[in-house]
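DM from R.C. (forwarded with permission)

"hey, sorry to bug you on a friday — could you get me a structure for this? deadline for the figure draft is monday and I only need the backbone to look sensible"
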Amino acid sequence: MPNLLAEGGRQLLLGNEAISRGLIEAGAGFASTYPGTPSSEVGNILEKISGEAGLYFEFSTNEKVAMEVSAAAASSGVRSFVFMKHVGLNVAADPMMTLAYAGVKGGMLIMSADDPSCHSSQNEQDNRYYSTLALIPMVEPSTPQEAKDMVKVAYEISEKLELPVLFRTTTRVNHARGVVEFGSKAVPKIKGHFDKDVSRFVNIPAYAKNNRTRLLDLNAKAQQLSEESPLNFIEGSGDVGIITSGVSYTYVREFISDASILKLGFTNPLPEKKIADFIKGKKFVIVAEELEPFLEDQVFRICAQNNLSVPVYGKRSGHLPRAWEYSPDTLKGIRELVKVTDFTQPLPAVTVKLPSRPPTLCAGCPHRGMFAAAKKAAGNSDVIYCSDIGCYTLGVQPPFQAADFIICMGGGAGAAGGFAQSTEQTAIAFMGDSTFFHAGIPPIINALFNNHKEVIVVLDNRTTAMTGHQPNPGTGRDFGGITTEPIDILSLVKGVGVKFAKEVDPYDVKAATQVMKEAIAFDGLAVVISKCPCPLELKKQKQLVIRECTVDQDKCTKCYNCVRSIACPALIKKDGIITMDPTQCIGCGMCANVCPVDAIEVRK
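My reply, with the result:
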């Protein structure tokens, strides 16, 4: 990891590393998150350096709580930073919308890391619209250097307006690398004081009405700041204009040299006068942006309000795609667009076919054993498998096919209750340990309260694995000078009143299958906790003990039950013969546990 606490100099940084350095230079005193790609590296970094950097950092139980704790810090005059992936802002939107009415006293940034092309997400929603919905300012960096520099500028905007600022990034900014020039570090303020102001911070209807008009006034001031902001600037010259923002700006710069470019970094409110002045006298204007026509639609409005009859090309005209992220190949079309004069036909889409590499559960992943146990226990009965967001989402793939319904964090358990009540089918929900604490407890209580007959399987692999092995309440905390004990999931489940609650070892597939049969037969809510550490986390902690696993070819009957039920990538089937790949096998013994003739041996 680069030295983000260095006094100065230049370093090659990932976008998320640059943002972390920006927090140090801006003097942020409080940060909170629920991990989610593409924002995860920021949390991983702050976990390591927060103590030495002198700021408080926490992994909160979900994004809503993360928003609330950071809002409290900012309302006390401490610069706070809350960050999450784009779908996490849906969870945090409830407090954010009213927080805009109250505003803050210290600067507060809300980083939404959007994921065009759904690289690691269930949708590619465009969170720029949250800034207009909440009436809060928004800034968008294009490069790691801008990402670092904009943190400090965004705090200044936040404190001038006493409003939170949406710091919107995308995957290609978070995960790009670039040389970043360091500025001076600031001494963070980590303790403030909350000055009571009921009419501002207690948004009951009588006060919320006045705060709504106050927010509109602040939005007008924000627009003037946008007009004057150096984050919005013009490059190049010519009678063709390109309006762009975010990572699309870098692609435009790569392919266009003979046009005038308006680069927008302060994107809500937009600098409407600057845009109108830029458009005047142009032959036509191209709007280059990923996902929704957020800028383009406002450019159309600005043209209409200023009686500008300049053609505008982009997504609405069909010249640029609305789906998926852009790339240098996508933006090659802009070069041709600049040169042509006949716009009656949209440009053909540029497609590049790359070989696919679907993700898969790791060798020795304990989830494999639990999926095998659930499928074996269910047999041929009519089951709806409700999955969730995490590594176990990959249970959708053959041979498990244990994911029929997935919507959001904690959504599987809630949906299972709905299916249990509205169908005659068996409902089985899977969730991870971090998901359990994030959003899994309320649907468990709901199932008890409404007497839903369902099975909830908590896949407790002792870490938040999918996003980079962050701690969660089930693992306890030990960083930044704070140490806490793990919260036991089984005790918590029993504590809320679940009658059938059992813990199993998923490597013992036979025993886990028997417990799953009992859970399915139970008349009510049954919770099964599959408890086994993630091998990658054990390897990271240098605690992984690898054992040798071999196949006795004299005993093997070639029934292939091991391949069909476990499907571990360490199992190699070639010319009908099953062998082990020693470079992948960790000797967990799951395959040996399901072999009916004991042909697989694990040497301790």
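R.C.: lifesaver. The longest strand covers residues 108-114.
me: no worries. The two ends are 36 Å apart (CA to CA).
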